[in-house]
Amino acid sequence: MRIQHLDKNIKMNLLEDLLKRSPNNYGKYEQGVAEILDHVRSEKDAAVFTYTEKFDGAKIDASNIKVTEEEIKEAYELVGEELTGIIRKALFNIRDYHERQRQNSWFESKPNGTMLGQKVTPLQRVGVYVPGGKAAYPSSVLMNIAPAKAAGVDEIVMVTPPGKDGKVTPTTLVAAHEAGADVVYKVGGAQAIAALAYGTESIPKVDKIVGPGNIYVALAKRAVYGHVSIDAIAGPSEILVIADETANPRYVAADLLSQAEHDELASAILVTTSQKLAEKVSEEVDGFLNELSRSEIIRKSLDNYGYILVADTMEEVIDIANEIASEHLEIQTKNPYDIMTRIRNAGAIFIGEYSSEPLGDYFAGPNHVLPTNGTAKFFSPLSVDDFIKKSSIIAYSQEALGAIHTDIEKFAEAEHLTAHANSIKVRFEKK
């Protein structure tokens, strides 16, 4: 990996380089996505079936688009007891973590006749998109469904692309069944997002769409926002490791590569105060590249967006970490908790040399659906909050309103909204 001394020019170039990976820069795909959305909106099931055959090579119709109990049973047999058991262990941790995020409605009454509060209501129907095709992501199934279940969502509709045989990846199905999906439909891509957003004869319209996908899925989610809510527009995966001279270079190298293997746009960055560590990590990376199965993808990722940055002080390290606002941030230093308190922007923070990033991807419990491309400056991980909505509650007695009605009337009149003022005034007209 390239080793560079961190200075103002390197910092500026790095930040500009990373932003190039944003889905907002893929406008050339927008027209094709828009055509798919319009077609599904007008032709509904017919368009979904046409696109599924075109893009996935599967012949799907109204009779087989919905996954059956028999298909779920077959999936369990194919997955086997060992992996099913691991999925259940992971789900237990994920469910336990998210159940602690639950919020309750609250109300406060005062002696003057006022009552204020907040009513927390789960979303009624949510759509979960799960990638398919060449790869299977049962972990994403768990991470998207578990918080929805913890929030109390009434109905969880999952969509995922089928293989050419018209079947869903077995591990995906087992994870969906374990996590509590109410129904699974065999459709993927932008056409699946359109079906969830607008509804078809087979697939019901949902209130919100969550889940990762390729650029077509990301752009489709962005396009339907407003018809439905969405979680976020996911960008390529990224990891930033903060380390000092006490870090284990082999661990650091392995963790950097754990994200670089996702795709050629993934970003893997080490920021350290130790030149010696930087050199050792680079050597370890070279060694791993001779062993790992996805080394070709990793090499391209590192060539494009891989960096080892050597800073003069830990303050500079923390500053660049907060500027990058990485999806995953590992801290492998002598005093990691002190560093953690100074981190303002990160999707998930992994503390200590045994808190490797894949721990969060699969098993620890916190959600692995995280803000990318610097959006950790203002977005949070997927959580129970994403599956609830809040209503304000206001109740005033005649006496309580009477004590303040002239203030409200004057405020409204100051904004030249006389109907607003009149709505209050008529309640205190002399009869």
Folded structure, characterized:
- By secondary structure, the chain is of the alpha/beta class.
- The chain folds into three domains: about 5-20 and about 235-365, Nitrogenase molybdenum iron protein domain (Rossmann fold, 3-Layer(aba) Sandwich), CATH 3.40.50; about 25-230, Nitrogenase molybdenum iron protein domain (Rossmann fold, 3-Layer(aba) Sandwich); about 395-430, no CATH class.
- The chain has helices at about 10-20, 30-45, 45-55, 70-80, 80-100, 140-150, 170-180, 190-200, 215-225, 250-260, 275-290, 295-305, 315-325, 335-340, 355-360, 400, 405-415, 420-425; strands at about 5, 105-110, 115-120, 125-130, 155-160, 185, 210, 230, 240-245, 265-270, 305-310, 330, 350, 390-395.
- The strands form three sheets. Strands 1-11-10-9-12-13 form a six-stranded parallel β-sheet, with helices on both faces. Strands 6-5-4-7-8 form a five-stranded parallel β-sheet, with helices on both faces. A three-stranded antiparallel β-sheet has the order 2-3-14.
- A hairpin with a 4-residue loop joins β2 and β3.
- α4 packs across α7 (about 170-180).
- The protein is globular.
- The relative contact order is 0.15.
- The model has no long low-confidence stretch (mean pLDDT about 95).
- InterPro entries: Ald_DH/histidinol_DH, Histidinol_DH_CS, Histidinol_DH_monofunct, Hstdl_DH.
- Pathway: Amino-acid biosynthesis; L-histidine biosynthesis; L-histidine from 5-phospho-alpha-D-ribose 1-diphosphate: step 9/9.
Q: Structural class, from secondary structure content?
A: alpha/beta
Strand percent estimate: 15-25%
What is the 3D shape?
Answer: globular
Mean pLDDT: 94
Give the number of DSSP strands: 14
Largest sheet: 6 strands, parallel
